[in-house]
Amino acid sequence: MNDDTATDTATDTATDTATDTATDTATETEAGAGRDAGAGALALRPLTARSIVLSTLLGHHPPRLPARALVRVGELFGIAEGTVRVALSRMVAAGDLLQRDGSYGLTARLLARQTRQDASRSPRTRPWGGGRGEEWEIAVVATAERRPAAERTALRQAMADLRLAELREGSWLRPANLDRPRPAVATEQCTWFTGTPDGDPAALVRRLWDLDGWAERARALLAALDRAGTPADRFTIAAAVLRHLLADPLLPGGLLPPDWPGDALRLRYAAFETELRELLRQFVEPGPTR
């Protein structure tokens, strides 16, 4: 490893640790992607070796690839093979990846993240009319005792994953249009109800979620993907798209503003996924010795 590679690796590791922490928060914030094709307006940062590996595996089914394929993806971004391989070794040591027979796959925590991402792209829904009188699901923290910070943080993450919004401290709700299991952290800390809010449900939705802000960023991501000229540009912006979909409240259509861009963003990501699958197929298949 030369001096430049060592420097890049040290910088990469520090930046990736911060990036992965950010993208695992309740809001799955968009701290770790972007190049020049629309990235400036979106305030995205370049992907690092670790982010590239994670984004590739999270977007691939099954989430396991040979090292040579991950190295080739890194090359699209101008990242040296040695830097990618050092990142892989450190990710195995950190418990993010499992290595077997020259291939790398996600561990349980990141498999759960992939499951959340998949659900954000193809949510399971229930019939919901969209007007007054329709049921909402409501969760209220059940204990009067002060909970440790770790428990409160875990509950907030779980509620974000369930797409519930916080009305006030300890009270969460949303339209009951989603069909998904509730994790133990949510059932143990909260009492759950179904109910019907008084007043206009659309007005309550606007109070609970920043729909205009989500839609504005979604349209900016769509425009950036349209302008992206290279696979690396599309990869970095698509990684931000996937994180943004994790923040989609997945509301019934009757409660959404006109021209809601959620479905368009999902379709656009599906097109990118097809492109990525073909790219990885080329990288995985044996080729001439390099």
UniProtKB/TrEMBL annotation:
Domain Transcriptional repressor PaaX-like C-terminal: 219-285
Record GO biological process: DNA-templated transcription
Annotated ranges, domain Transcriptional repressor PaaX-like N-terminal: 49-109
InterPro entries the record matches: PaaX-like_N (IPR012906), PaaX_C (IPR013225), WH-like_DNA-bd_sf (IPR036388)
Location of the region described as Disordered in the Swiss-Prot/TrEMBL record: 1-34
Amino acid composition bias (Low complexity), ranges on this chain: 7-34
Annotated protein name in UniProt: PaaX domain-containing protein, C-domain protein
The organism of origin for this protein: Streptomyces kasugaensis
